[in-house]
Amino acid sequence: MKTFASRHSGLLILALVLAVLPLALPNSYYYDVAIRIALNAMVVIGLNLLMGYTGQISLGHAGFFGMGAYASAVLTTHYNWPPVAALAAGAAATGLLALVLARPVLKLKGHTLAMATLGLGIIISIVINNEGQWTGGPDGIAVPGFAVFGFEITGEKSWYAVAAALLLLVTWFALNLIDSPVGRALQAIHGSEVASRVAGIDTTRFKVRVFVLSAVVASIAGSISAHYIGFITPNMAGFFHSIELVTMVVVGGMASVFGSILGAALLTVLPQLLSAFEGWEVVVFGAILMLTMIFLPRGLVPSLARRRGKPAAGSGAAPLKLVKKAGGGHA
């Protein structure tokens, strides 16, 4: 039996880094970047459970992120809902939409699945743009602060503590999920959906569950982001944001929880660093991504771990032997 420390050494290291990091953040700008990294990493971990571990691509996750953000904005601004209730309502609505659409959408595979999820994201973005009386349309909408039981979260240190705690919670949940029979079933589906069915795994049920889970995580991160930023626009639900999230998964490492965090950190910080290349930052950004995919095709964390001759912490392949472990099949 693995001990807690051996199974979650990466989580303990992450907790230590998050606890010590404020000592190295000199001003509010760096706190802002750290908070955005943590919120992006939450979404990317959920998306990696769907893409990296289950093998189901989604190009519309920014739509779920936007649904959470706009649910919080509309319900708190127009109806004076408490922020926590608005966040919960947004997560529930997003989860319900994902549940309704998951079965027909996840019957598709490959590029057809990618196009279907892309279409879903575009529809959500169009609705947000067109319903200007509620959402502010292309001009965006202001979002009040986040308060819990009358206590409002203010200041970069408080927001950093909230974002860091949520990131730790999502990371812990993902690691435990991966190490459970459900996680082994997801990896078996990625390895071979046909073999998984033969072993008795209800592949449709598992794919629907992870799709809904990843959508709800994205919605919660969207709600928190909306309250933190204080003003949102439809761009956060747009196609380019979805591509950015997928790129974070791929660059950090497919089927790697800590690769998700690294990918979110790199692609959140990199545009800031490339601002010096005035007019050429997009070209340099694209070149860096291209070189990463050429020389580290599995993503940064799995590729570097493989070169060191050991599996990355929080990572999982999808070997067919997992089918036998996950079979019998009703995890």
TrEMBL record:
Keywords for the protein's UniProt record, in alphabetical order: Cell membrane, Membrane, Transmembrane, Transmembrane helix
CDD domains on file: TM_PBP1_LivM_like (cd06581)
Domain of life: Bacteria
Compartments (UniProt record): Cell membrane
Name under which the protein is recorded: Branched-chain amino acid ABC transporter permease
GO cellular component: plasma membrane
GO-annotated molecular function: branched-chain amino acid transmembrane transporter activity
Transmembrane recorded as keyword: yes
Family matches, as PANTHER family: BRANCHED AMINO ACID TRANSPORT SYSTEM PERMEASE, HIGH-AFFINITY BRANCHED-CHAIN AMINO ACID TRANSPORT SYSTEM PERMEASE
Bilayer topology: Multi-pass membrane protein
KW Transmembrane (keyword) present: yes
Ranges that cross the membrane: 36-55, 85-105, 112-128, 158-178, 210-233, 245-270, 282-301
